[in-house]
Amino acid sequence: MTKEEQDILMKEGKMLPVMEHFYTIQGEGFHTGKAAYFIRLGGCDVGCHWCDVKESWDPNLHPLMNAVEIAETAAKYCKTIVLTGGEPLMWNLDILTKKLKELGCTIHIETSGAYPMSGILDWITLSPKKTGLPKEEIYQKAHELKMIIFNNNDLKFAEAQAEKVTDNCLLYLQSEWSKRNEIYPKITDFIMENPRWRSSVQTHKYLNIP
Ligand code: SF4
Fold first, then answer.
1. Nearest CA to ligand 1 atom 7
2. Less CB within 10 Å around the terminal CB: N or C of the chain?
3. Pairing state of beta strands 123-126 and 106-111?
């Protein structure tokens, strides 16, 4: 297949760069503890300096997979699917999510929102980043706003981002992993003063699961 043919298939959403896909338990946010099949798509140019999946950034390092086949594999394990990355909205998710819906799945996505929306998405976890702000269209559709806190300024950024989502959107603060001992006490104090927020912890890292 030529590079041009490949690019067309990717643009149509027929092929997607898949870094990894696996059955596990959702570790963070509202759905913590729920069994889910994760599909981690390669590619992200948002550039968070603390990113814990930097190996996802270059999409060329990850094999292109047929979107229908990924959906069929995932749905055999579990009907809750989490699309993550990288930044999954870099890609056209129409074919993958249409097939997953045909197979009876509920589709969650974890996204920075920096790219236009595509696909059929049942649960949107929006995690805005200063280096690549979300497109306006996604704020009103997010079910969950998950802000990663690395320093005190990030709490201010979190408050500003919370003003852009709907009143029904759940608000979560989650420490960047390497800073957790320093940041969680601050998050705890902040939440007691601002009880609309909740705390999210990366439980999968304590459980040693992916
Ligand atoms: Fe990493 Fe996510 Fe930031 Fe991309 S948006 S650099 S994948 S933390």
1. 86
2. N
3. parallel
